[in-house]
């Protein structure tokens, strides 16, 4: 619930009107809202399967991780390409808003120079999430010196050390080419220059190729079982945190 200023109240109404138009299977559904007196709040669908951080605290297979990534990418692609105006996930309203509520480690580095977010800002944030799915690490890797996940992955990737990049909880049960391609996809999305980052539509296509590799190919350690349980993952709505 929020205590509104005049500006916040207008912004809230704009966002509610926008959320009423959003409908996608991989996005948390908007149920209703409260705007009575000083109280403002949005009611969204309950995430029965938990959030991504909770899922990663368990033991997801490589195939399940890729499916989660594809589901999230499809949700973001819908926000960018299927909504008018386009919705920026890490924005608090629409694509023209500049007030950011972001989490350290996920925010587009260009924002610090431009004070603006766009679709490519979401692409960067998604690249960070994809690296988390690959490595099992948080966006800020906790060690003697806290390190951003991009800086943690980069030297190992340059040295061809994919084994130490991949989450050890996978126990070698992954298709090597699929992991390599997925890591390359993630690193392309976190390019410091937004103009170099591909669209979410392209992300979806490339991740589906990675999933196909993992299903049809031999895993690093053993053959993959075809009857793995699936994980259905909804991503948060454009203003949820």
TrEMBL record:
Concerning InterPro entries, the annotation shows: Kinase-like_dom_sf, Prot_kinase_dom, Ser-Thr/Tyr_kinase_cat_dom
| Signal peptide (UniProt feature, chain positions) | none
The UniProt GO MF terms for this protein read: ATP binding; protein kinase activity
Q: Which domain of life is it from?
A: Eukaryota
Which stretches make up the Protein kinase domain?
1-241
Protein name from the UniProt record: Protein kinase domain-containing protein
Q: Which species is this UniProt entry from?
A: Nyssa sinensis
């Amino acid at each position: 619930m929020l205590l509104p200023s005049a500006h916040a109240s207008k912004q809230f109404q704009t966002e509610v009107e926008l959320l009423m138009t959003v409908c996608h299977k991989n996005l948390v559904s908007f149920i209703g809202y409260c705007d009575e007196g000083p109280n403002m709040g949005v009611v969204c669908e309950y995430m029965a399967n938990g959030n991504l951080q909770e899922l990663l605290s368990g033991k997801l297979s490589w195939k399940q991780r890729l499916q989660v990534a594809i589901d999230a990418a499809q949700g973001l692609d819908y926000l960018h390409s299927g909504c008018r105006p386009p919705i920026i996930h890490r924005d608090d309203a629409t694509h023209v808003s500049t007030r950011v509520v972001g989490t350290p480690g996920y925010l587009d580095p260009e924002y610090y120079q431009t004070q603006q977010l766009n679709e490519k800002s979401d692409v960067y944030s998604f690249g960070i999430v994809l690296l988390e799915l690959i490595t099992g690490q948080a966006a800020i890797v906790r060690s003697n010196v806290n390190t951003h996940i991009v800086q943690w992955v980069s030297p190992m990737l340059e040295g061809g050390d994919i084994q130490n990049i991949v989450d050890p909880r996978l126990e070698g049960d992954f298709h090597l080419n699929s992991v390599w391609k997925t890591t390359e996809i993630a690193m392309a999305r976190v390019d410091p220059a937004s103009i170099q980052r591909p669209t979410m539509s392209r992300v979806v296509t490339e991740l589906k190729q990675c999933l196909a590799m993992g299903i049809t190919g031999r895993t690093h350690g053993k053959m993959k079982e075809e009857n793995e349980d699936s994980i259905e993952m909804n991503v948060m709505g454009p203003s949820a945190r």
